[in-house]
Backbone:
């Protein structure tokens, strides 16, 4: 498990000291409730709560920002597409250009995109306190205690370890290609090169992961990860969880009954 | 003063990796001339590979400069630099990804947009030099370590770089393949830079030795002088002579 | 004289990879406790495949293996894997835990070693490998030489009876090579080394097992092997060309100094 998400597990904070089982369970419920939010004002509130929790972890914000880059790349296009594609409803404000009548810009689409984006950001930011404040293996072990099936845990564990194997292979091979003056173009050579590259990458990653697996077997690994860690939930842990549950109720109450602004 | 133009000219080159406490390169000054064969030696972590990465424009100087054939290495010139310099990776697997050896050698040449006639000639030439003509139709994936290494060098060689950098060319090879490769390297006429801590191999392939320790070139002298400077070798953990017991056992007559 | 029972016995072992490659074609080999064996042979002669049979990572199509009297079969695997420590060539593949300490503890934990004994074993192994200060480091922050030593520590902590090393000194600088060689040479276990590096084999092993094309080609003493130039050459191990550069040095004097040096990491 080459640490990346858990790079800052050694810091000390109220979130770090929170029992991993309660922490993960509580934050997952929070994430689900965020995903159910309908109103943009509540979505702003969720973002605020996520940032608050994140700040409590004392993990540098720049570390979380990297995660946001990925979300932005994925959700960003919504801002372009949704205003153009959302079906007009009564009460919508629609802008259009006098010469391009078919291009209608619906501001409600913009709002929808913003809501999706805010929710996505809030949830992604939560993964940092969720999995970034404990060693990754201890978080995984906590999932096991939460009765997540062993097969899923194994998958998580190995994909986490192997993604780094895969990335390091990818990096070295693509460097070697660049040094031999490869620059992608729209032609058969590029297509074939990518095909070969991908094939070799998979074979190599497979060979290496097999070797890692053999090394684990050689040291008595039986398919069950044994981690010596005492999970002890104290009153403070339940208190932290109940604070978050209050926030969850707040979010749902505000979202359903105040109908936003 | 040496009036000859340097092929590679490093001036006060320094570099630090992000989050590192120490500089990986610390004020490197050095000139390398055409047709020299230069050994870069030093213990693990001395900055040898970092230096090579600067010669290829993989890393760019944070301070100081790298000039290759009178062209400053900077982003705008990277293409030119990579025409001039070829790098052979330590692990040939990082480099080989085509279905056959022939395609592997062709790959760089196609990227250089050479006419197919010339590509064909260069593949033949390169395969002859590296003695891999019989492997051209084989998949590189199934070759032995020594063969892979030769294919990796052949693929770079076909691009006709003026400077060939080899990172640990004999790593993971058995002595037989080491010998084969050493002889092949000796037959190449381009300027060669060899990074290694295998002194016996360097002794046979290089005339000049740059000794690197902690990001600095602490000595720049002939290979013979280097081999004679036992205190230096010993001090920087390059002493391979614990291996000599074995040489003695093989040839008792030489050491009597 | 009472005949000692061998610690490893391999009888008529055959193995074919799923892709159809026949890797072992009837291997017979016995190894006595305390021996240190150099396993040599060309690329693809079956060395790595053979050692992966000893702890049941691969299971032969035919033939039988016993380790310390136990047949290598499913129900004994856990015990046998505790008896055999296997160090792989690329330490990066062997270090998969968050810190060096965890990696060293991984084996003993799987063997259900209790808490107190576990800590002691880990400390001991780290100390032996000179890695005490790096226990809490993530392994990818270590230098290559340190990684190699960490990989060895992960095996020492299992207190095996047999240790197997695949190219233990590859890619190391001479200083780290000397350090690792010295450590291996002084381990009180039965050892099997796969290496191209004849000088290291020469320092550590008394006996040589030569493999060729999935079979055992020869078994002989190290002294006989090293003077058999033809056999050395056949297996690509003729080291002679490297000896040119040691000519003319003052050897005895130097060796004393090296031994002193290699004790301090």
Residues:
């Amino acid at each position: 498990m080459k640490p990346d998400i858990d790079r800052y597990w050694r810091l000390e904070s109220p979130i770090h000291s929170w029992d991993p089982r309660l922490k993960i369970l509580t934050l997952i419920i929070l994430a689900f409730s965020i995903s159910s939010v309908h109103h943009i004002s509540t979505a702003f509130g969720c973002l605020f709560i996520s940032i608050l929790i994140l700040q409590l972890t004392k993990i540098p914000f720049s570390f979380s920002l990297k995660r946001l880059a990925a979300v932005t790349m994925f959700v960003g296009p919504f801002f372009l597409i949704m205003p153009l594609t959302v079906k007009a409803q009564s009460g919508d404000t629609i802008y259009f250009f006098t010469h391009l009548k078919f291009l209608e810009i619906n501001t409600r689409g913009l709002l929808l995109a913003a809501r999706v984006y805010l929710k996505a950001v809030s949830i992604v930011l939560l993964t940092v306190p969720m999995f970034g404040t404990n060693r990754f293996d201890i978080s995984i072990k906590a999932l096991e205690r939460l009765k997540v099936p062993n097969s899923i845990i194994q998958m998580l564990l190995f994909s986490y370890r192997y993604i780094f194997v895969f990335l390091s292979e990818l990096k070295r091979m693509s460097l070697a290609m660049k040094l031999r003056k490869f620059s992608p173009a729209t032609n058969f050579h590029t297509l074939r090169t990518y095909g070969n590259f991908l094939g070799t990458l998979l074979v190599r990653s497979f060979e290496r992961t097999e070797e890692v697996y053999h090394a684990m077997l050689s040291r008595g690994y039986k398919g069950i990860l044994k981690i010596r860690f005492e999970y002890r939930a104290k009153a403070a842990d339940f208190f932290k969880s109940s604070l978050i549950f209050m926030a969850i109720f707040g979010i749902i109450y505000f979202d359903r009954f105040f109908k936003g602004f | 003063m040496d009036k000859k133009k340097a092929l590679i000219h490093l001036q006060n080159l320094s570099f630090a990796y992000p989050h590192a406490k120490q500089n990986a390169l610390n004020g490197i000054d050095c000139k390398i001339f055409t047709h020299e064969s230069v050994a870069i030696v030093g213990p693990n972590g001395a900055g040898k590979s970092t230096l090579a990465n600067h010669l290829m424009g993989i890393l760019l100087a944070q301070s100081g400069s790298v000039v290759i054939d009178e062209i400053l290495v900077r982003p705008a010139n990277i293409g030119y630099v990579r025409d001039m310099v070829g790098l052979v990776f330590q692990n040939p697997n990082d480099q080989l990804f085509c279905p056959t050896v022939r395609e592997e050698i062709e790959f760089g040449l196609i990227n250089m947009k050479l006419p197919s006639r010339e590509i064909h000639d260069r593949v033949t030439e390169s395969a002859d030099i590296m003695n891999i003509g019989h492997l051209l139709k084989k998949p590189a994936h199934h070759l032995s370590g020594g063969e892979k290494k030769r294919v990796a060098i052949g693929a770079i060689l076909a691009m006709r770089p003026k400077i060939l950098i080899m990172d640990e060319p004999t790593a993971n090879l058995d002595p037989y393949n080491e010998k084969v490769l050493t002889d092949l390297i000796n037959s190449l006429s381009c300027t060669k830079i060899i990074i290694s801590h295998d002194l016996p191999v360097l002794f046979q392939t290089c005339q000049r030795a740059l000794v690197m320790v902690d990001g600095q070139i602490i000595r720049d002298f002939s290979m013979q002088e280097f081999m004679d400077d036992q205190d230096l070798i010993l001090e920087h953990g390059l002493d391979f002579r614990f291996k000599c017991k074995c040489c003695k056992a093989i040839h008792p007559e030489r050491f009597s | 004289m009472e005949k000692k029972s061998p610690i490893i016995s391999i009888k008529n072992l055959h193995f074919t990879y799923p892709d159809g490659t026949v890797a072992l074609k009837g291997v017979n080999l016995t190894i006595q406790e305390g021996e240190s064996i150099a396993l040599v042979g060309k690329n693809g002669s079956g060395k790595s495949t053979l050692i992966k049979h000893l702890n049941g990572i691969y299971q032969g199509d035919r033939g039988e293996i016993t380790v310390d009297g136990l047949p290598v079969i499913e129900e004994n695997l856990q015990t046998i894997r505790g008896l055999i420590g296997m160090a792989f060539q690329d330490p990066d593949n062997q270090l998969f835990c968050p810190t060096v300490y965890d990696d060293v503890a991984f084996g003993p934990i799987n063997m259900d070693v209790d808490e107190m004994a576990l800590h002691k074993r880990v400390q001991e192994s780290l100390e032996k490998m000179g890695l005490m200060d790096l226990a809490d480091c993530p392994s990818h922050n270590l230098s290559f030489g340190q990684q190699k030593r960490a990989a060895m520590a992960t095996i020492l902590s299992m207190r095996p009876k047999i240790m197997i090393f695949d190219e233990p000194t590859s890619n190391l600088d001479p200083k780290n090579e000397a350090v690792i060689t010295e450590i291996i040479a002084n381990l009180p276990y039965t050892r099997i080394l796969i290496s191209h590096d004849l000088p290291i084999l020469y320092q550590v092993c008394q006996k040589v097992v030569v493999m060729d094309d999935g079979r055992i080609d020869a078994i002989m003493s190290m002294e006989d092997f090293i003077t058999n130039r033809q056999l050395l050459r056949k297996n690509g191990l003729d080291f002679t060309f490297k000896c040119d550069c040691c000519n003319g040095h003052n050897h005895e004097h130097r060796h004393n100094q090296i031994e002193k040096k290699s004790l301090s990491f």
